Amino acid sequence: MNIPNQLTISRILLIPIFILLLSFPFQWGEWNIGTDYLPVSHFAAALIFILASTTDWIDGYYARKYNLVTNLGKFLDPLADKLLVSAALILLVQMGHAPAWVVIIIISREFAVTGLRLIAAGEGIVLAASKLGKIKTITQMIAISALLLYNFPFSFIGFPFAGIMLYIALFFTILSGIDYFVKNWHVLGESK
Fold first, then answer.
1. Residue 128: left if φ>0, alpha if ψ -120 to 50, beta else—which one?
2. Which of 36, 68, 165, 186 has the greatest CB tally within 10 Å of its CB?
3. Are 109 and 174 within 8 A, CB to CB?
4. Would I find Transmembrane among this entry's keywords (predicted)?
5. What CATH number did the domain enclosing 153 receive?
6. What's the structural domain count of the chain?
7. How far is CA 27 from the centre of its chain?
8. What contacts 31, CB < 8 A, 6 or more positions away?
C-alpha cells in the first residue's frame, strides 16, 4: 500500500478518536478563552481535525506528484473526507455550535455530488473536483476548525469569525454543488 493511501487510512482511523473526545465529558480541565471556556478534550479534538484535514491535502499532493493515484485512493479519499466533515458537523450541532439546517444542507450536497460521481463512474466517466469544490473544502475546514476551537482567538475580541466562516462555507457548498450539477448534467442523461 502506497503512502497516500496510508495517510488516507490514518485519517479514517483518527475519526473515532475525534468523536470520542467530543462525545464524552473527559475531565481534563478547560481554558478561559474570553467569553467562553474551551475544554482541553475539545482542543485535542480540534487538533486531530486539523491534522486529519492536513493529511487530506498531503496525500492528494503526494499521489499526484509521484503518480501514485490508485482506485483504492479514489474510493477512500472522498469517503474519508465526508466521514470526517459529517462527524464534525453533526457533533457541532449536538454541542450547540452550528445550526442543524446549515449542517443538513452541507451534508445533503455531499450526498448529492457523491451520487452523481457514482453514476458517472458507472458510465466510465471520472468527474474531477472543480476550483469551487476546492474552495468549498477549504472554507469548510476553516469553519469547522474555528467552531471546534470555540472561535479562539477571536473570542477575546468578540468577533464571530467561526459563525461567519460557517456561512461562507455554506455559500460555497451550495455554489459548488450547483456548478457541479450544471457542468455534469449530461451524466444523468447518459446513464442507462
1. beta
2. 165
3. yes
4. yes
5. 1.20.120.1760
6. 1
7. 27
8. 37, 38, 40, 43
Length reported for the chain: 192
Distance in angstroms (rounded) separating the CA atoms of residues 48 and 42: 10
Q: Which residue has the cell 487538533?
A: 47
C-alpha cell at 67: 503518480
User: Which segment of 3-7, 87-91, 98-102, 106-110 scores lowest on mean pLDDT?
Assistant: 3-7
In 3-state terms, what secondary structure has residue 145? helix
For residue 141 the three cell numbers come to: 475546514
Residue 58 domain boundaries: 3-190
The share of the chain scoring above pLDDT 90, in percent, equals 66
* DSSP letter (8 states) at residue 123: T
Bridge partner list, 38: 31
- Per DSSP, 28 falls in state S
